[in-house]
Amino acid sequence: MKTRPTLADIRKWPATVSVPKGAEALGCSPNHLHARIKSGDSPVKTLKFGTRYVVITADLLRLLSGEDRGAA
């Protein structure tokens, strides 16, 4: 069984990662994360390039480390 990456592992990732890689860090399936992104309810910030989405690694780190995004 594959283990989830640690925060130290994720800090070494590039600025953006694929949805499957982001889902691996979150502990969910890529299909689930894609559905959340498409519904506008993603727990992490993403960018869309054509039909492809990427997850912003800094936001992934913020979420997983429990840092507050700040209330607007």
Examine the coordinates and then state which fold CATH places here, giving the name of the CATH topology. Answer: Arc Repressor Mutant, subunit A
Fraction in beta strands? 15-25%
Q: How many strands appear in the DSSP assignment?
A: 3
Beginning-to-end CA distance, first to last residue: 40 Å
Q: Give the overall form.
A: globular
Give an account of the 3D structure.
- This protein is an alpha+beta fold.
- It has a single domain (7-65), classed as Orthogonal Bundle (Arc Repressor Mutant, subunit A), CATH 1.10.10.
- Helix content is 43%, strand content 17%.
- It has helices spanning 7-11, 19-26, 30-38, 57-65; strands at residues 16-18, 46-49, 52-56.
- A three-stranded antiparallel β-sheet has the order 1-3-2.
- A hairpin with a 2-residue loop joins strand 2 and strand 3 (52-56).
- Helix 2 packs across helix 3 (30-38).
- The longest helix has 9 residues, at 30-38.
- The protein is globular and about 30 Å long.
- The termini are far apart.
Describe how the helices and strands are arranged.
Layout: H1 7-11, E1 16-18, H2 19-26, H3 30-38, E2 46-49, E3 52-56, H4 57-65
Explain briefly what this protein structure is:
The chain is built from four helices and three strands. It is an alpha+beta fold and 72 residues long.
List keywords for this structure.
alpha+beta; 72 residues; Arc Repressor Mutant, subunit A; single chain; 43% helix; three-stranded antiparallel sheet
